[in-house]
From TrEMBL:
Keyword Metal-binding: yes
Pfam families linked to this entry: 2OG-FeII_Oxy, DIOX_N
Name the UniProt record assigns to this protein: Fe2OG dioxygenase domain-containing protein
Alphabetical list of Gene3D superfamilies matching this protein: B-lactam Antibiotic, Isopenicillin N Synthase, Chain
Species of provenance: Pisolithus tinctorius Marx 270
Record-stated family: Belongs to the iron/ascorbate-dependent oxidoreductase family.
Gene Ontology terms for molecular function: metal ion binding; oxidoreductase activity
Keywords attached to this entry: Iron, Metal-binding, Oxidoreductase
The keyword Metal-binding belongs to this UniProt entry's keyword annotation: yes
Domain spans labelled Fe2OG dioxygenase: 174-303
Length: 388
């Protein structure tokens, strides 16, 4: 078995444009995909100036008056966009002590009466942004950021194919044309009043890739986004945050590194690679009581709503499969079974994701997806739900 990991590898995106360094990049990426499921990506293509602008907005976003947040509460959106109140989600039966805003790249819904209901999952984000007068310029900056990370994610997915010994376009079949795709982003605040320490409980992500920027407020660097030389933002806060589970089930800290994204593998990619790529359980600890909130901006790269992953499982060269054999099987921890992604072998990706959203946001489902709500919550709105 390959050695267990105790830290997250750093992969240098600049190596792909250097003929001598590119094989090293591919080898590092392959190791991260197969043995870890997480990596830091440095020297990426997303504009630092744009990131700096977004970072300066995030604390202001959560400082908006509560009545302004409630105007765009997620329960009003059939597309699961908008604001989620503090403590509105649960993971493994415990409250996630966070509040968040869900945003998305531009999209016109493909759903029409008679079409599969899961096509309603994606739709226009108009109406689910804070009032421009209260936080002028935020929407434009956030949308520009989402589009730049989207472009990076598509480039990165072709590099994943290369790391798996496949043609660079081998994963393109999991995406529709640009106008038919939508990707999601969040502004998330993990707060400091949790008695359990749970900011976000142990879970997996659904899709192929997640790109995360983490940030702290009040004389604290925004998660390795800004340089220590900036007057309002200093080095990373020492309090704990993101953790991942290694091959034996131990929790490993993932501290912020300046200038990087944290990238992780989702359950959909694990499924189509027959477990070659590894989705890794992860959680976020609440900051200690009395400290500042922990802010983050995750980007979730989606795949086509209509693709049936069971029909698209990939085959790999023997020299690539040997790396999976060397790794062996990860420990079967309490968090190993993802409660919302068991349907990948039966349903289109969109249906799987809609089921997950219904389970984690029953108030949205009750209003907009009554049939699914009744199926999963026959006794009405539950007091607690599993968010993942």
């Amino acid at each position: 078995m390959a050695p267990n990991f105790s830290n997250i590898p750093v992969v240098d995106f600049a190596f792909i444009s250097n003929e001598a360094k590119r094989p090293e990049f591919i080898a590092h990426l392959r190791h991260a995909l197969i043995n870890v499921g997480f990596l830091y990506l440095k020297n990426h293509t997303v504009s630092k100036e744009l990131i700096d602008r977004l970072v300066n907005y995030i604390p202001r976003l959560f400082d908006l008056p509560q009545h302004a947040k409630e105007k765009i509460v997620m329960a009003n959106s059939p597309h699961f966009l908008g604001y989620s109140r503090l403590g509105a989600e649960f993971t493994k039966g415990k409250t996630d002590y966070r509040e968040q805003f869900d945003f998305a790249t531009p999209h016109e819904t493909q759903w029409r009466p008679g079409a599969p209901e899961y096509l309603r999952l994606w739709g226009p984000s108009q109406g689910w942004w804070p009032d421009e007068d209260l936080i002028p310029g935020f929407r434009g900056v956030m949308e520009d950021y989402l589009l730049q990370v989207q472009a990076l994610s598509y480039h990165f997915i072709s590099l994943l194919a290369e790391a798996f010994g496949l043609p660079s376009d081998a994963l393109a079949k999991f995406y529709d044309s640009a106008e038919c795709m939508q990707h999601r982003g969040k502004g998330r605040s993990t707060n400091n009043g949790s008695l359990t320490g749970q900011g976000v409980g142990p879970h997996y992500d659904a899709g192929f890739l997640t790109f995360v920027r983490t940030c702290f407020l009040s004389n604290v660097v925004l998660g390795g986004i800004l340089d220590a030389s900036r007057s309002k933002l200093l080095q990373a806060s020492p309090h704990p945050g993101l953790q991942v589970q290694n091959l034996t089930g131990d929790w490993i800290d993932v501290p912020p590194i300046p200038g990087t994204f944290v990238v992780n593998i989702g359950k959909a990619l694990e499924f189509v690679t027959q477990g070659l790529a590894r989705a890794t359980s992860h959680r976020v600890l609440s900051p200690p009581v009395g400290s500042t909130p922990r802010y983050s901006v995750p980007f979730f790269q989606n795949i086509s709503l209509n693709v049936r992953l069971a029909d698209e499982v990939l085959d790999f060269p023997p020299e690539i499969l040997k790396f999976k054999d060397l790794r062996g099987n990860p420990a079967q921890t309490d968090f190993y079974a993802a409660v919302n992604f068991a349907e990948f072998d039966q349903e289109p990706s969109g249906k799987v994701n809609l089921i997950g959203r219904v389970k984690s946001h029953p108030d949205v489902a009750e209003r907009h997806y009554p049939n699914l709500f009744e199926q999963y919550f026959p006794n009405g709105l539950p007091k607690q739900v599993n968010a993942y």
